[in-house]
Description:
Helix content: 55-70%
CATH architecture: Orthogonal Bundle
Largest sheet: 3 strands, antiparallel
Amino acid sequence: MRAAARLAKVAGTALAEGELTLPQYRVLVFLSVRSRPATHVAALLGVSASSMTSVVDGLVARSLVSRSADPTDRRRVMLSLTSEGTRTMHLGDELVGSGLNRLLQRLEPAQAEQALVGLELLNQAMEASLEERFGPQFNESGSFPPPSSSSATALSAPDTAEAGLNSSPDHS
């Protein structure tokens, strides 16, 4: 399973060209679906609220993410992607795709196709895992279930690679 960690490294290196870290990119990807409470983004990423705050602070400072009070519960902070954040996320998609393509060019065409099919299958499995953990709404524009104690656990290595390798923001 070292391949997942190595793919995350490839994604992180590619994202550095766009002055993004992998955690920042993952936040942008999760927010591309819809605005979310900061606590839910932290749960999706498997990090503490304080870790989430430091990542989001950098994104807010660059005007990629905005914070606002939740209109239904003013104690909660909502995170939203800005138009610049959307552009930056798409740039991240392109950079990660280019990094992946550089790897795939080292394979025979049939092997490269096989690798892409395998990545798509892993992506489907990760989506199913997220739906199981957070409910089917995690990727919809409706309400998001409150994070449970089990949802705050760290994501596995394949989940970590997901946002760094998925070029389709609607499936992260």
